[in-house]
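In this section we walk through a basic example: taking a raw amino acid sequence and producing a predicted 3D structure, encoded as discrete structure tokens. The instruction is simple. Fold the sequence below.
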Amino acid sequence: MSDVAGDVIAIIAKKKRVDKPTVELSDKLLDLGLESLDAVEMIFDLEEKFDIQIPYNANTNNPRTEFETVGDVVAAVEKLVAQKTS
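The resulting token sequence is shown next.
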């Protein structure tokens, strides 16, 4: 697992609202109990951690629908980080 993936999972794990010992790439954000405010805070935390901009509009799109699983979030962040460094 990449450092990016580990950091993303750690951020999501802090936001989860269910009693689950580990967060897996296949876990759905909704199943982890992330509500819309949690998803927005998660995005802010990820943007700050990786110095990236995650494209979303909090007024019209529900961030949870853009990212269904933890793996979706990891893939999006890894892509944005790679674009930043290239």
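Looking at the output, two observations stand out. The chain has a mean pLDDT of 87. The chain is about 55% helix and 0% strand. In the next section we compare this with other chains.
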